[in-house]
Amino acid sequence: MQITQWNIISEGLDQQRRYSRDALFTIGNGYFGIRGFFEEDDQGIGALGGLYMAGIFGKGEVDVVSGPSRELCNIPQVLRLRIILDGEKVALDHIQDFSQELNLQNGVYTRKYVWTSKTSARFALVFERFARMDQVQEIWQRLTVVALDSSATLKVQSLMDSNVTNLNWASKEPWPIQPGRDHIASRTLRDNQMQIQLDDADDTVLCIAQKVKAYSGYEAVTSSPYTGDRECGSVFETTLAVNAPFVLEKAVHVYAPRMDARQEQAQAAFLDAATTYDEAFEKHASCWLKRWNTADIQLLAPERDQGALRYNLFELMAVSPQHTERVSIGARGLSGEMYEGCVFWDNEIFQLPFFYWSDPKSAHRMLRFRYHTLPAAIERAKELWFKGALYPWQVSEKGKEQTIVEGGAYYAIHITADIAFAIRQYVELSQDADFLQNGAFEILVQTARFWVSRCDADPADGKYHIRSVRGPNEYDVYVDDSAYTNYLAAYNLRSVAWAWGILKQRDAEQSQRLADSLGLISKEAELMQEIANNLVIPATEDGMLILEDNRYRERRPLDLTKIDTGGKRLIDSVMPYEALPLYQITKQADVVLLMNLFPHNFTDQQKKTAYEYYEPRTAHDSSLSYSPHGLMAARLGLMTEAYDYFEKSVLLDVEDRQMNTVSGIHYANFGGTWQIVFYGFMGISVNGDTLCISPRLPKQWQGFSTKFYFRGAVFQIQYRNGELSTELICGDGKYMVMLEDEKFILSNEKPKAIVKKSL
Amino acid sequence: MQITQWNIISEGLDQQRRYSRDALFTIGNGYFGIRGFFEEDDQGIGALGGLYMAGIFGKGEVDVVSGPSRELCNIPQVLRLRIILDGEKVALDHIQDFSQELNLQNGVYTRKYVWTSKTSARFALVFERFARMDQVQEIWQRLTVVALDSSATLKVQSLMDSNVTNLNWASKEPWPIQPGRDHIASRTLRDNQMQIQLDDADDTVLCIAQKVKAYSGYEAVTSSPYTGDRECGSVFETTLAVNAPFVLEKAVHVYAPRMDARQEQAQAAFLDAATTYDEAFEKHASCWLKRWNTADIQLLAPERDQGALRYNLFELMAVSPQHTERVSIGARGLSGEMYEGCVFWDNEIFQLPFFYWSDPKSAHRMLRFRYHTLPAAIERAKELWFKGALYPWQVSEKGKEQTIVEGGAYYAIHITADIAFAIRQYVELSQDADFLQNGAFEILVQTARFWVSRCDADPADGKYHIRSVRGPNEYDVYVDDSAYTNYLAAYNLRSVAWAWGILKQRDAEQSQRLADSLGLISKEAELMQEIANNLVIPATEDGMLILEDNRYRERRPLDLTKIDTGGKRLIDSVMPYEALPLYQITKQADVVLLMNLFPHNFTDQQKKTAYEYYEPRTAHDSSLSYSPHGLMAARLGLMTEAYDYFEKSVLLDVEDRQMNTVSGIHYANFGGTWQIVFYGFMGISVNGDTLCISPRLPKQWQGFSTKFYFRGAVFQIQYRNGELSTELICGDGKYMVMLEDEKFILSNEKPKAIVKKSL
């Protein structure tokens, strides 16, 4: 893998890693996710493509808690190409100089190779595509064919191919992938239009249309319409002269009337418009440039670190929905079928922070998704005999529990507090009090009510307890008094009063109406406070070590350094599943993660104690583990460890380090990578009203520069040659900034920028 | 359902309950289990039959802990009959006077009806069959056809039909049943012989042969051999005169060379022999009579109670293996596919007690099964990083864990102590010290070693704890310090010293060699004792209430009397699965069961307290719950409650009270029914060396009479008109007997019998 400042390049065709690279080279625009599949390969698993749309689910394979399951649906392979040169079909044998390249700046995925025919004639082929960012219902594709040795006849079928299934039965490993369920219940084809109906409970329909043009040596090539078996499109036939490129440009428009009926007109307009590939690309690319403006982190660092970091951020931006508040980012986004395409807690805890700082509107949209699914969370709490709102562990766009019955994952109720935490984080960073009035307060109250109903008062110790929960360490079915869960639940309970304070100040009357509509009275609010103050947080007697749960220390120690897992996960190698609850084994960051979320609430000594205690007990059997450890290590000044974790995190998918990239790339880890860099190496945090910046770079790095949002303003910080500077790019207020140990106030009037020699 | 002294009779054909009746009318001989299917129905699910053989498993559907799963295999329907009268096939429409009858005394299942042809001619048909008890590889069948109105031509195909699958996909409810897996990998057919190869890992082969004769009006009818599509056999054609019965007699012999190669000669001899149906029946029936001798309990009670009780005992005897030590009784025996035909703890705790007292040799054979699977249990402990032997929760004849990965049932490690408990019970009752020397001691030592490695010493309280286990109350994934588990584990640990005492006295040298071979030294034995004495048994401070686990009382109370489950199980109706661990809900007898096992170790006050505390908290969501409650109620003198539970238990399958009889009848419940009667109503127990008899009859009963084994002797006790008598039928020793509150010694020399006016 070659990593440059703005490109991820893979040279040579490695059949073994082909489908893993398909996932790696996923592009998208939050509406579509398009794996890096080969358009011209219509044989076997490769022919299935890998094209997903946000919120488009089919009938699932497994029974789940709430009833019939759903799984992200692989839609038709709408970029199908069949290329016939001198009567011979271009296939993947007899190719040379194969390369795949992802341009991170503009999201164009390019594939090239030279193909040799049976008569030894060579042809250069280039495949390009992008998911248009300014018109998200569109995918654009360009094919260029050049005869290198002699002229030839060329026939190109440019199709939409509905002869696909999902890529996997259920979402389970192990690999390689196997054809999965056929979700297409019925189809109507007519030349360049296709309508399919899915097998989901809503009978979702997708309306697909394409327009294709082609030129040979800059002369237009006419096409004939084509409707075949489950596929349709246009067919071009021409003669290629040597070195006179044949160029085919195609655009596809897809919409689901169930999601957005207005798109019917949009599709008609799309078909009418005379937009060229270059015109569409220009608009698309400028959209991407704008997004990079407050997202990019320029490093003075090895090119690999720079390019790989940008890859992580690129994929987050490529999957975040711009067009709707009705979906959010799944664990594997729109890049694969693992976890049925569903959304989990990592959306709030791992992915959203990047958006708070780089694109608050996206963060807002994704939190609004939780507001739209609040009724489902209220319903879920009721089903389980609790009050308020319990957000399900795993949800599709409908917000209903999609966890399988047997897994026990539904004990991981901390997700409810994670969502409340994210809401408060977002509001504190954006100062978006409107959101508090319009949805967020309702979520905070309903989730707090859940915790009131979920905890138990114990007369023996006068404390409140939360029993039988699964914390971030998923290696217990459940524990009592998970420190992470209880701490976040207490924060959730306290956030009602916090939000109420803001709302009252904003508009006393309006906020009282809101409270009344929720039936919130002061007695209930007081109980929330009382419980928050008395929820047990297990710790050693001196308070120095926060305990993962109330019996973690009673378990048997296990020296992970003496265990050889042969490169596999602990749980997939030597560790018997049934013995897990007897040992001090942490699957992934738990207490360490808690302390990352509240960096100013724990002393450095507490953090150090926790890191040193849990790190050797942590199996890192999840992609959610490296980055929190990297962040904590950076905050503790353990720069060698921090950089080591950064490498593991930033290259996780680029180098397929967990050997499961094939099933989709790891969005939580992308967000975690950003957190190591932004919170850890750049040392950015917020303490009360103050923006704190205190960089600690690994020795491999010399500096950085970045822009970000804070309280509606845009800041830029730069660090190089031991000099740290901060500038207010735009923003109307006064902003307290702490550069390392010195406090400043920035505003439009007073100094807009500070430069400081770093420690 | 009509229940007489010795018959279960169902009149009329109820299509809705047909497959549930199939299970109810299961007959068997421990080698075969044969559901009450209709031989002449070759349409749909009915055509699949339902015929199982002990230890014959096919490839299963679900992944299990130990790898690929196995499931009890439905073997070919070897009793297939096609009956054509005047060219019209006898089918299940147009029938009258339909009845099914099971003779409990001799295990013959009879089905009768009158069939009317399209030309309105009536024919009486009788189908009889039995699984021969003195030659367990044989099944016998008899068909009688009588023309009632006019003569007719008759054609009968008497076949073995391999066109079957299992009756269900996996073993899951809900019903109705659906065709399951086809386990037959290949077949060779030749007239009256069939060889099939199964799809299991051993490529098990079944060799099946039949011989058939027929008479019409006492004249032999000749047959032609027949080999069809997946079926073969003999075809008879004749003319029926009015009222001149056509009688067809058939015998089938089946063996699996993998299980018993010597049966090849036996099958040849079977085919040569001229045995008639009546001759075979006579030998078979006398075998049954002998078994009833020490098993039957004659009641002075309503006929329903008598017949239903006998049904429970009949099915236990009909499933217990007489021919081998290599299998034991599965939860649904050989009557259905639920639980994949596997053996669980209920074998030892619910079913074996009946055999200790009625047929100690059967009990011995089934405990030897646990000895043969000891290596698998040792392997299992090792896999899970423990020492000694951990008996898997669910096993086929191979003794390997068959629990599904997700279920968590493997936390129910009490099964290991249950097996040790059963061994000690059996040895104490039978005085079979030979078994201790030959296998049982090894089991006791290895299981005790498991507990040593499984428990944790806590320096804080100086006690030992067993963490993360599932007790008999399966409504927790796991708890810490389950009273049931810890008490039985302690007993298991103590039983090593107990057994050692007996062995040393029996033969000091031989026993030392055994200990040496096991590497057992006194230091280890002392540690076992030390742990046994310090294992925590959770209880209230005054010791009055034994607590199910260490936090049962901290959970939320739930008033079951206020919950309407609409006749369903709590868990299948209103109770959310995820909330279970937060509530005081007991799925089935737990502490109550513990006290039943050690009736002399708890005070009456402790038992009463436990019964009154747990009974209202018990959902009875298992067929293992009524009978322990019935027994405890009887011991506490709560005769109304006891009789109520007895009714629920004795009629569970007869009246299909849990609506799941279709998936197989409930053998643990059969054993539990016997325990209510034997231990509860008849008041039999053993205290040290003394046989205690202290009847407490429900008011519906006036008396009883029964014979049973005790320490190698046979006793008879009778109770009627308030007079209790005990007689030593045969036995060489001196036996201490306590009749209610008075002690006697019975022997051959001194009084052999005592009669006592009861309290």
Summary, kept brief:
Chain A has a domain at 36-95 and 112-282: Glycoside hydrolase, family 65, N-terminal domain (Beta-galactosidase, Chain A, domain 5).
Plain-language structure description:
The structure is a homodimer of 759-residue chains. With 759 residues, the first copy, chain A, is an alpha+beta fold. The first copy, chain A, has a domain at 36-95 and 112-282: Glycoside hydrolase, family 65, N-terminal domain (Beta-galactosidase, Chain A, domain 5), CATH 2.70.98. Chain A contains 17 helices and 32 strands. In chain A, the strands form seven sheets. In chain A, strands 1, 2, 10, 11, 12, 13, 15, 16, 17, 18 and 21 form an eleven-stranded antiparallel β-sheet that branches. Chain A has a five-stranded antiparallel β-sheet with strand order 9-8-14-20-19, with no helix packed on it. A five-stranded antiparallel β-sheet of chain A has the order 22-27-28-29-32. In chain A, strand 30 and strand 31 form a beta hairpin. In chain A, helix 5 packs antiparallel against helix 6, helix 10 (483-506) crosses helix 11 (508-518) and helix 10 packs antiparallel against helix 12. Chain A is globular and about 85 Å long. The mean pLDDT of chain A is 95.
